[in-house]
TrEMBL record:
Superkingdom of the source species: Bacteria
Keywords from the UniProt entry: Bacterial flagellum, Cell membrane, Cell projection, Cilium, Flagellum, Membrane, Transmembrane, Transmembrane helix
Gene Ontology BP terms: bacterial-type flagellum assembly; protein secretion
Its membrane topology: Multi-pass membrane protein
Keyword S-adenosyl-L-methionine: no
InterPro entries: Bac_export_3, FliQ
Bilayer-spanning residue ranges: 13-39, 51-70
Name listed for the protein in its UniProt record: Flagellar biosynthetic protein FliQ
Length: 89
């Protein structure tokens, strides 16, 4: 296994991880920002008010993107398995 092959595989894995995590986290961050602005405007300092919407949006993103996330990681795994002969030799 040459270092270039290892770096390519590692780069692809990191890229997929960043895309998958950002697809889940970014909607939660946006809702957290909206709730924080709402709390600042109304002077409501309830901790559960910011937690529950973020939790629901994160679960909704997982439900909406679950098929795509599974397909992406499966495709990457199959690509890794197909690369085994090239990596060994």
């Amino acid at each position: 296994m040459t270092p270039e092959v290892f770096v390519d595989i590692f780069r692809d894995a990191l890229q997929i991880i960043v895309i998958m995590v950002s697809a889940i986290v970014l909607p939660s961050l946006a809702i957290g920002l909206v709730v924080a602005v709402f709390q600042a405007a109304t002077s409501i300092n309830e901790q559960t008010l910011s937690f529950l919407p973020r939790l629901l949006v994160t679960l909704g993103a997982l439900m909406a993107l679950g098929h795509w996330l599974t397909a992406t990681i499966t495709e990457f795994t199959l690509e890794l398995v197909a690369r085994i002969p090239a990596v060994i030799s």
